[in-house]
Write a structure and sequence with these properties.
Blueprint lengths: L9 H19 L1 H9 L3 H10 L21 H11 L1 E3 L5 H13 L1 E4 L6 E3 L3 H8 L5 E3 L3 H4 L1 H7 L2 H11 L4 E10 L6 H4 L7 E2 L7 E7 L10 E4 L8 H5 L4 E2 L1 H8 L4 E4 L6 E4 L5 E3 L7 E9 L8
Antiparallel strand pairs: 1-11, 2-3, 2-4, 4-5, 5-13, 6-9, 7-11, 7-13, 8-10, 8-12
Helix pairs in contact: 1-2, 4-9
Bound molecules: fe (ii) ion.
């Protein structure tokens, strides 16, 4: 696996683990490279709200019936504007079961490699068979093969939240379902597959992502952590730096621990976040975590995943 220098600063470790992918994406679509450099600046993101603006009237009456009954879209958008995070979009238990039916009957791919295919309950057997330590188990065909996930990514209430927050017709960018395993793998190996240091993501000029836990998540099973309000309040050095990762010390010194939100909850808990907020995933230490992520932006890029 990785040969990262353990003494290297976290932001450099993160970049070293990612630069090849960034290079490929820049070659595949120059617009992505432009976005990657420009969208780190708050004033550019603010300007893009006007550039990509579409009247909401033209986006009303989205087809279909929402499976999310009791959510208040306007309240959620207010939280997103203020905190960059809203926790409490709960999936109906029927949908959680349907996704589990898919997981129970499909193979995942260890560390995103198609050559390491196994049913999730046989992870330990697969690790011995392939002589590997798996940090994640990915389901790259989930949209194609799981109707419940397809239904959710087109859910009218999710699309309405995305529309109102982005001020534009949301463009679906990605949907991912994956296990994060409780392992003793070194942090340097984890960095290849997981975002374990505070960072913000430059996915698009305006972007929103929905997460759903499909296992119970507590402090020992890899909670997501968000720095509330950090999408509106970034130091100039956070924006000017090429590196979007920051140390815990830097984050706590500037934002204080009061603004760190650890998202824990039962299977089915959903939350929505602006990825321009600083955030990270704590590595699971005792229990594996299964999570679904659906991402919307304002334009798509011709890049791989
Ligand atoms: Fe991230």
């Amino acid at each position: 696996m990785s040969n990262l220098n353990p003494n290297m600063p976290n932001y450099l470790k993160r970049f070293e683990a990612k630069w090849k992918r960034y290079y490929e994406w820049a070659r595949e679509d120059y617009r992505w490279l432009l976005m990657f450099f420009l969208s780190r600046f708050k004033f550019i993101r603010n300007l893009s709200a006007y550039f990509f603006y579409q009247p909401h009237e033209s986006l009303k009456n989205l087809p279909g019936i929402s499976c999310l009954d009791s959510i208040e879209e306007d309240k959620i958008v207010d939280f997103l504007n203020k905190d960059g995070l809203y926790v409490g979009i709960n999936l109906p238990s029927k949908l959680v079961k349907q996704i589990y039916n898919y997981v129970d009957t499909s193979n995942c791919y260890g560390n995103k490699e198609f050559k390491f295919s196994f049913p999730y309950m046989e992870k330990e057997i697969a690790e011995k068979k392939y002589d590997q330590t798996f940090i994640i188990g990915d389901y790259p065909h989930v949209v194609r093969d799981c109707p419940a996930v397809r239904q959710l990514q087109k859910d009218p209430k999710l699309l309405e939240i995305a529309t109102k927050y982005l001020n534009a017709k949301p463009v679906h960018l990605s949907t991912k379902l994956w296990w994060s395993y409780a392992t003793e793998a070194p942090m340097s190996d984890r960095l290849n597959f997981a975002q374990v240091f505070f960072h913000y993501d430059l996915i698009d000029y305006r972007c929103v992502q929905f997460f759903f836990y499909l296992t119970d998540v507590e402090l020992s099973s890899g909670p997501h952590v968000c720095v509330l309000g950090s999408h509106q309040n970034k130091k100039l050095t956070h924006q000017l730096s090429f590196f979007t990762g920051r140390s815990d010390r830097d984050i706590i010194d500037y934002y204080s621990t009061d603004n760190l939100k650890f998202v824990c909850g039962k299977a089915g808990l959903g939350f929505v976040e602006d990825p321009y907020c600083f955030h990270k995933g704590i590595p699971p230490s005792q229990k594996n975590r299964l999570m679904l992520k659906i991402v919307f932006g304002v334009q798509s890029y011709q890049i791989g995943s």
